[in-house]
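haha ok so turns out i had the wrong file open the whole time. this is the CORRECT one, sorry everyone. sequence first:
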Amino acid sequence: MDRADFLDLFFQESDDRVRELQAWLPRLRRTPGDAEVLSLSFRCVHSLKGGSAMMGFPEITRLAHSLEAVLDHLRSGRRPVTSAIVDTLLASADVLYALVGRSRNQTEASPAERAAADRVIAALDAFCGVTPSLRST
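then structure:
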């Protein structure tokens, strides 16, 4: 397999993982703290994070890292599932979807898209008590 084959596989799997997240996360509104949803979501994001790091997509990796941290806090019971967290998780999945698409198409994110990603990362980090750091754009 060459890099193009690995990229194709990465994008196929990333699409699947993001769609799974978008399907599972709304269940947390009905059953906050659903251990199965939290575990499945965590594994999805963990896979996305590892694949994006390996394939050289730091924007996806950065968001997936923050998303993974929140899901870990939720599944371990360190944070309760709240409406605000579910909203942020869903927004994060949408941003991940956009980042994967941009990476696939080899296009740069617009300033508005970068700002949206930065906002969801800051919100995710805040849920975990992480102090936001400045990032050069």
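The helical segments are 3-24, 27-30, 35-55, 58-75, 83-105, 111-127.
again sry for the mixup
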